[in-house]
Design goal:
Immunoglobulin-like; 3 domains; four-stranded antiparallel beta sheet; alpha+beta
């Protein structure tokens, strides 16, 4: 054989090996975690219409459109009036929607979370529903798989896998641009026509898959790479909202002040920004925080309003604003990821439904590609088995079973156990989330007994995290969420609640101010590496400026 022939043979072999490697990578991205991938894709498909699913199931969410809408602040005030003992976090005004009521998230006495609904056309409260409705359940499953610690990062990783799968799929399909109108060979055996259909559907949906893959990969960079691995921030962090100074709070006097109504606050904001459609109202997270009014001024590719106005809840003074023109390019780009991923960028009306329908179909197509890839693998291996051994023999049956149960066998290889453990984790997490939605923290986590702090009776609850609520939170060096419970409905009588820890040497940490509405107000605390003699402390500062502190031994919980 001539040297030229040898060279050509070597080049052909390298191309063949490269093509084989690309094919194996494409197969691996779709098969190794196929069970979990299918869960993510199917729930993502349903999440497109998550709100509509809940709307169909709960009459409290349905309203008949009127000619005009009431002041959005009235909606907030009406919910507070209807549920005086609930902790109201904020309200989504449904300003872009015609047939859905405005919804307010609230915590109720005795624990548990619910949604209150109010008609945005007449201001009447239509009732309340569980927080964990079917649509929201599907949405949370899609974003976290109900897996503690790693859930969100794991889901985001599938975005990276999808991008790899797109690139390798196009490289594997030689001259793919000729395949857009290539009819599947349905007259052939199922493995052939299913493979043809898989490639045809993938080609026509590659634009959609690229959007979903890119947005997922973008979030993967943010979580876990930035959040947990120390990767540099691409998007500049948004500045903290303005806060009320100690001097401003002292001017309110020693008694618990009464904040302005949300109606009056919205009037003030609308007077300064008449072109802003109010999308969301958020109550102050603690005494020094402003009332936040978020709105839309016609910006494209933004979820939940691009403009925020900060208002002093006691005087009505506008403390500052952050409008869409203040965003950096990176922040603007980052904000576009959510509406692009979920197909909510049309915002309202018929266009919104059409876009969501397209995204739903795209999600169904992506789910089909994952499942059809698995079926193609099974059919290919089944045919290979037929060629080796007669199907009538006992050995053939044993071999088929063995190909599945062996650690390295089957389409998922050793990752089959990752898939099965993941499914078990999803089921366990789903039960936990349903329980938390109905009962709140309830009997979860670690309880600390009631103690007297100044003239307040207070107990504490510590959990490792909402999806980790069944784990023991009191561990050396652990990060825990601590919830204070002030008895006799006196939560608002505490101007500030601070929580921190005391290490084994007796040194108190700086502590942090509790944030959130009553019932879910909490603070993240890092426990010392040595728990012997370590304590958790709580300090309450009243409106008279006097502070009182009490300690609980971590081992006494």
């Amino acid at each position: 054989m001539s040297s030229e022939a040898i060279l050509q043979s070597t080049v052909k072999q390298k191309k063949k090996n490269s093509a084989r490697l690309v094919y194996l990578i494409h197969s691996a991205t779709g098969l190794w975690l196929t069970l979990l991938l299918s869960v993510v894709l199917i729930t993502g498909t349903l999440t497109v219409f998550a709100v509509e699913i809940d709307w169909l199931m709960h009459s409290e969410m349905r309203v008949e459109p009127g000619e005009t809408r009431v002041n959005p602040g009235i909606l907030f005030d009406q919910v507070k009036k209807a549920y005086p003992n609930a902790g109201i976090n904020g309200i989504e005004t449904a300003a872009m929607l015609e047939h859905r009521a405005a919804g307010a998230f609230m915590t109720v006495q005795g624990g548990g979370f619910r949604m209150a609904w109010v008609n945005q056309f007449n201001g009447q409260v239509t009732g309340d529903t569980p927080f964990m409705m079917v649509g929201r359940f599907i949405d949370i499953m899609h974003t976290t798989l109900f897996l503690p610690v790693i859930g969100r990062a794991f889901v985001n990783f599938f975005g990276v896998m999808m991008l790899i799968s797109i690139v390798t799929g196009l490289l594997t399909y030689k001259k793919f641009w000729k395949g857009f109108f290539r009819k599947p060979r349905f007259e052939k055996k199922s493995r052939t026509w299913l493979g043809d259909l898989h490639r045809l559907v993938a080609l026509w949906s590659v634009w959609f898959l690229a959007i979903i893959g890119f947005t997922g990969a973008w979030w993967f960079y943010e979580n876990p790479l930035v959040e947990s691995a120390g990767a540099p921030h691409i998007v500049a962090e948004r500045p903290d909202p303005p806060t009320l100074t100690t001097e401003e709070l002292n001017l309110l006097g020693p008694e618990t002040p009464t904040p302005m109504t949300a109606e009056n606050i919205v009037d003030i904001v609308q007077e300064k920004f008449p072109d802003m459609k109010i999308i969301f109202l958020s109550a102050p997270a603690n005494a020094s925080q402003p009332f936040m009014v978020r709105g839309d001024r016609g910006e494209a590719l933004v979820m939940g309003g691009a403009n925020t106005v900060y208002v002093n809840p006691y005087t009505g003074e506008i403390m500052g604003s952050r409008m869409s023109e203040d965003w950096t390019f990176g922040q603007r780009f980052d904000a576009a990821m959510h509406p692009l991923h979920y197909g909510t960028w049309a915002k309202s009306g018929t266009a919104d439904f059409i876009v969501k329908l397209i995204w739903f179909i795209g999600g169904a197509v992506a789910s089909f590609l994952a499942i059809s890839g698995l079926l193609i693998y099974f059919k290919r291996t089944k045919e290979a088995t037929r060629e080796l051994v007669s199907e009538s023999t006992v050995f053939a049956k044993f071999k088929r079973v063995w190909r599945w149960i062996r650690p390295w066998g089957g389409p998922m290889k050793g990752f089959k156990y990752v898939n099965l453990l993941g499914i078990a984790g999803i089921l366990s997490g789903a039960v936990l989330v349903i329980s938390l939605g109905a009962q709140g923290v309830g009997d979860k986590g670690t309880k600390f007994p009631v103690k007297r702090v100044g003239d307040f009776d207070v107990s504490l609850t510590a959990i490792a995290g909402f999806l980790e609520a069944n784990l023991n939170p009191i561990r050396p060096g652990a990060k825990v969420e601590v919830f204070p419970n002030i008895l006799e409905n006196r939560f608002r009588d505490a101007r500030f609640i601070r929580i921190g820890v005391t290490d084994a040497s007796g040194k108190d940490s700086k502590g942090a101010v509790v944030e959130g509405p009553e019932g879910i107000a909490h603070v993240d605390v890092h426990l010392p590496e040595k728990l012997d003699n370590a304590k958790v402390w709580l300090e309450i500062e009243g409106w008279d400026g006097k502070a009182h502190r009490e300690y609980w031994l971590l081992r006494e919980s």
